[in-house]
């Protein structure tokens, strides 16, 4: 039986979304077709659409009523996570032809890596790349040649962008096809030690680079539980990719078999198959809530407090951070995967993985079972895991017990009775904090503010020895309107060092920290942002700030009279608007909405 509080929160979301969801469904119904979409095209349109196809494919596309699959790919060979996609289109085409259907690469979407751009000018494009990917997905599918969609994407903004774009074509069945994580390399705990030693000047760049290369060493996603791997978790929790397919390494027989099986399953979901299931039927209020539950139960990326909100709105579902906070009160933290622990996602997969997680949540009534998925009705399909029988996939029940309860525990005996995130509220605004990796003794900080306008300024103050004390770092003008809301990972090593030295430190920012948010209490995504005249722009050096993650409180301890007498501080941010293509994103900075509404330029 579903937990009563879960049912109540879900009903609240359904009621709030009634008008927007109905409008979305009405738009989707208007796009539904009888038979293949391409039959509506003129001869000239159609000839252009398959001019480059083989003769066999042309005959099928011209003479039969069989569906045609559009492949939207984020392949590039610079980024390890997306390099394995190089031969996926051919594998998909082969599987499609074996099912009597065709497949074409509909288009490509950009895929940038925050790991490469971290702390660089290009990072200012990162969040907005999600909306660009959504638009690129729409352009790819705009030819109206397709009856179903395969989305090939893994990392931070790519999967949310593909989801938003695909939901604009809500009448099309859609299946996501992951590529999997790289095999384990240097343990995350060792990598962090080297990063902190470098921050203190105790090792050089050569040693740092070696540690990074030993950690990120082959094709596949990074093995820590950041936004990329949180994306894969989310797609399973929302029923959008094959059960147990998220964390299978590239270049293996299982990985290849899962790619073929994804196409076999997609064919069944088309109108000519036996279980027509468009993406609009999969992504509804309950699916979105299941996604939030997965985020909380695993201690996933804080980026999804933004991305999942935007995905939901693309399907007409309105959620906010209060929904996430309320769910966090009943959803237990079941996982300890770095940065919430020492294990990586390969270890998580080996000891039970997504199948165990979902099976346990369902057994406790802590997720919605009665949903539509790409596998059919019910999340019980996802309490299973794949095994190879020859070259075929066989689904078996997920394990009843975790093989390592230091990494993965059942919902009934979890690491924490509450989820890994909290909503902070107070006179500074609203923001989120990831507490799953923050020790209980570090979740409350009351200290004077030290204000910075760039993360480089904090680094310089740290190296100058100015920060050896209790303080709250206030890093402002980092919101979406100011500079695109880059991730502020340069802050993690120095603040971590200071906390290890025994100081009480915290971070308050209108920027992001992402899936790598770690042991420092970090109040992030603060809204309204400084550029909008948010209260964060009123903070002065020395002001006392109280952050209490357990009580959900973030307060600037300055009288209302004093605050009323202050003018918002401004700074010249024009230097973050030019170079590395940033000038092209001025229209997006001008139109972007609030972080709690998804920090998106789209209006639904």
From TrEMBL:
One GO term of the biological process aspect: Entner-Doudoroff pathway through 6-phosphogluconate
Cofactor note: Binds 1 [4Fe-4S] cluster.
Dihydroxy-acid/6-phosphogluconate dehydratase N-terminal domain sequence ranges: 67-380
Needed cofactors: [4Fe-4S] cluster
Gene3D superfamilies (alphabetical): IlvD/EDD C-terminal domain-like
Residues the record lists as binding [4Fe-4S] cluster: 155, 222
InterPro entries: 6-phosphgluc_deHydtase (IPR004786), Dihydro-acid_dehy_C (IPR042096), DiOHA_6PGluconate_deHydtase_CS (IPR020558), ILV_EDD_C (IPR056740), ILV_EDD_N (IPR000581), IlvD/EDD_N (IPR037237)
Keywords on record: 4Fe-4S, Carbohydrate metabolism, Gluconate utilization, Iron, Iron-sulfur, Lyase, Metal-binding
EC number: 4.2.1.12
Catalytic EC class: lyase
PANTHER family noted in UniProt: D-XYLONATE DEHYDRATASE, PHOSPHOGLUCONATE DEHYDRATASE
Similarity comment text for this entry: Belongs to the IlvD/Edd family.
Identification of the protein by name: Phosphogluconate dehydratase
Annotated organism of origin: Marinimicrobium koreense
């Amino acid at each position: 039986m579903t937990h009563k509080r879960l049912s109540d929160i879900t009903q609240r979301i359904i009621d709030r979304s009634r008008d927007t969801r109905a409008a979305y469904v009405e738009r989707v119904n208007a796009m539904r077709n009888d038979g293949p979409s391409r039959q509506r095209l003129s001869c000239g349109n159609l000839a252009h659409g398959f001019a480059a196809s083989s003769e066999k494919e042309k005959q099928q596309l011209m003479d039969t009523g069989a569906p045609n699959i559009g492949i939207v790919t984020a392949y590039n060979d610079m980024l390890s996570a997306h390099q394995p996609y190089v031969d996926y289109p051919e594998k998909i085409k082969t599987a499609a032809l074996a099912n009597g259907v065709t497949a074409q690469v509909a288009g490509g979407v950009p895929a940038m890596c925050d790991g490469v751009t971290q702390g660089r000018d290009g990072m200012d494009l990162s969040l907005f790349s999600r909306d660009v990917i959504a638009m690129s997905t729409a352009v790819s599918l705009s030819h109206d040649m397709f009856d179903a969609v395969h989305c090939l994407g893994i990392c931070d903004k790519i999967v949310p962008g593909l989801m938003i774009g695909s939901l604009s074509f809500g009448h099309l069945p859609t299946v996501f096809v992951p590529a999997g994580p790289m095999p384990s390399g240097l343990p995350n705990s060792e990598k962090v030690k080297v990063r902190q030693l470098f921050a203190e000047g105790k090792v050089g760049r050569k040693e740092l680079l070696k540690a990074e290369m030993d950690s990120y060493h082959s094709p596949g996603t990074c093995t820590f539980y950041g936004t990329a791997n949180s994306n894969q978790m989310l797609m399973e929790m929302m029923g959008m990719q094959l059960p147990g397919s998220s964390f299978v390494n590239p270049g293996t027989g299982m990985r290849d078999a899962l790619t073929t099986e994804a196409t076999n399953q997609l064919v069944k979901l088309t109108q000519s198959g036996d279980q027509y299931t468009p993406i609009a039927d999969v992504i509804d209020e309950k699916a979105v809530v299941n996604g939030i539950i997965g985020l909380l139960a695993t201690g996933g990326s804080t980026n999804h407090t933004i991305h999942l909100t935007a995905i939901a709105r693309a399907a007409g579902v309105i959620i906010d951070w209060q929904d996430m906070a309320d769910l966090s009160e009943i959803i237990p933290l079941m996982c300890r995967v770095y940065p919430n622990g020492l294990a990586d996602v390969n270890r998580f997969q080996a000891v039970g993985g997504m199948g165990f997680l979902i099976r346990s949540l369902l057994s406790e009534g802590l997720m919605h079972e009665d949903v539509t998925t790409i596998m059919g009705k019910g999340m019980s399909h996802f309490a299973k895991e794949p095994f190879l029988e020859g070259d075929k996939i066989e689904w078996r029940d997920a394990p009843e017990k975790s093989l390592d309860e230091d990494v993965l525990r059942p919902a009934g005996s979890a690491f924490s009775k509450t989820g890994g995130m909290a909503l902070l509220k107070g006179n500074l605004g609203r923001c989120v904090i990831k507490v799953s990796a923050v020790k209980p003794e570090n979740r409350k900080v009351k200290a004077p503010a030290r204000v910075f306008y760039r993360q480089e300024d904090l680094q310089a103050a740290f190296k100058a020895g100015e920060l050896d004390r209790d303080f709250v770092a206030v890093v402002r003008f980092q919101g979406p309107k100011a500079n695109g809301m880059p991730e502020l990972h340069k802050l993690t090593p120095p603040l971590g060092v200071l906390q290890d030295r025994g100081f009480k430190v915290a971070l308050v920012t209108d920027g992001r920290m992402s899936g790598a948010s770690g042991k420092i209490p970090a109040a992030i995504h603060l809204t309204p942002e400084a550029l909008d005249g948010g209260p964060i722009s009123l903070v002065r050096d020395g002001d006392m700030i109280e952050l209490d993650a357990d009580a959900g409180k973030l307060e600037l301890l300055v009288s209302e009279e004093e605050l009323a007498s202050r003018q918002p501080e401004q700074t010249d941010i024009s230097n973050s608007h030019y170079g590395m293509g940033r000038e092209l994103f001025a229209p997006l900075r001008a139109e972007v909405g609030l972080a709690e509404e998804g920090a998106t330029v789209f209006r639904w």
